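Support request, please re-run this one:
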Amino acid sequence: MHELGLCEGIVDAVGRRARGRAVAWARVRLGGHPVDPEVVRTGVAMAAAGTEAEGMNLELVLDPLRARCRRCGADEPVADALGMAACARCGGVDVELVG
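Re-run finished. Output below.
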């Protein structure tokens, strides 16, 4: 699971803010590459075992990566690796990634 490092980072950040107190819930904003929310929730639960974040309710706010095409002007969410390289509308490869 390539999200494991992300999940461990979330638990580390929550732990720093908790300062030893038990954590009931956390809201995390994720942007950039598409992720499967259930995979992230499961990974965070695994990484949180034995920490103050164990059993916390995790609210994920997904802020998807977007591709803006300089050729046709399309501004579309990126759903896969191809969407990071080429415009989903016109196929142009002059895209700017935002998010």
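The chain has two helices and five strands. The two ends are 22 Å apart (CA to CA).
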